[in-house]
Amino acid sequence: MGINVNRRFLLGGAVGGAGALAGCATAPASAALPADSNLPAGLFGPAPGVALLSRNENPYGPSPKVMAAVAEATRCGAYYCDTSYLAAMIAEKNGIAPSQVVLSTGSGEALSAAALAFGKSGAIACPALFWDTTSKYAEAKGVTLKRSPMIGDLEIDLAAIEASVDDSVSMVHICNPNNPTGRSLDPAQLRAFCSRVSEKVPVLVDEAYNELTDDPAGNSMMDLVRAGKNVLVARTFSKIYGMAGMRIGYIMASEEHARMISQYVMSWMSAPSLAAAVASYNDDAFLAFSKSKVTEARQMVHAAMTANGINYLPSETNFIYANVPDAAAYQRAMAARNIQIRGPYGALTQWSRVSMGKIEDVERYCAAIPEALGA
Ligand SMILES: Cc1ncc(COP(=O)(O)O)c(C=O)c1O
User: Fold this and answer.
1) What atom of ligand 1 comes closest to residue 247's alpha carbon?
2) DSSP conformation letters of 70-125
3) Can you give the residue range of the structural domain that contains 366?
4) Residue 26: what pLDDT?
5) What global pTM score does this model have?
6) For ligand 1, is residue 181 a contact (CB within 6 Å)?
7) Is the CB of 104 within 6 Å of ligand 1?
8) How does pLDDT run across 259-269, given as a tens digit for each residue?
9) For an engineered disulfide with 91, which of 98, 111, 142, 341 has Cβ 3.0 to 4.6 Å away?
């Protein structure tokens, strides 16, 4: 592999376990600037008193280990940094070569790069509803999106997407679990789909929320990347790792595709981001802590929605998509109570997305549901 990856990081760090969890317990308070900070207010996170439940972030991060690592890295901020160590860590954990990892500024950059790299030779086949920010970025530069309508309760129609793959298509893009619906595809069906369709065109699976699902390994299509299939998998440090502001993500693919995508990646990682990623990548105690907070919040929201007669889609993510009479009015009513949630997505005016956040903020959301529904 050429890179000597430190076993301490690969095995989750020597200070994992109970010590790390004790540190995690203080993370919520630290996910805000201290009162005596010299930084201008409003640079990061919610304004005081605002429950920020609109952006699928994880306010329980970053982990205490990350904060220590970032402080250390800042001392070396004079130097350009070497990302090969992180690529090797990711490769080792996923059973691929470092040359198959494309690091980027959030997974968004690698996803945009992939959309441009493949989109120049054909259309991108995708669902009607998914996290399409990066596909739209490519669309604005002339790439065609070939969207297939959703079926049932806003499910991705794999059969329709497969049928849409013809000579005009250069890549398929699936998001699993999907955003904003939170729904997961049946892993066996998705695996069979990827195996078949990747014989024709590359299939990119955005797995931003994979680690939050009940069975991350079973839900992931990484086994197909390892098997040399024409499949690409995107991951991020923005969700379970609680580091959306640190901007670290990556795509894992064949060496050829990794090279292709790299040509469209425009920036490279900052020293604090690199340190944060290395310090947290195998911090299993923190990841379990984050997941437990998301699960706790989801159970609270599910119970409150059920009590208030709101139907919601099944979710294994840190957000819930729920059926309300008027998503815009519901959002306004929540905003009037200093609770930020998402408004309608296009024509889906009766669907409202709420992100899991700090437990106390989720409590406020749950308590506000009856009044917001009446708005
Ligand atoms: C499905 C999905 N993929 C990718 C991203 C981009 O995340 P980032 O660029 O922070 O890695 C998001 C952001 O919300 C997302 O929901």
Assistant:
1) 10
2) HHHHHTTTTS---THHHHHHHHHHHTS-GGGEEEESHHHHHHHHHHHHHHTTSEEE
3) 286-374
4) 38
5) 0.93
6) no
7) no
8) 999 999 998 89
9) 98
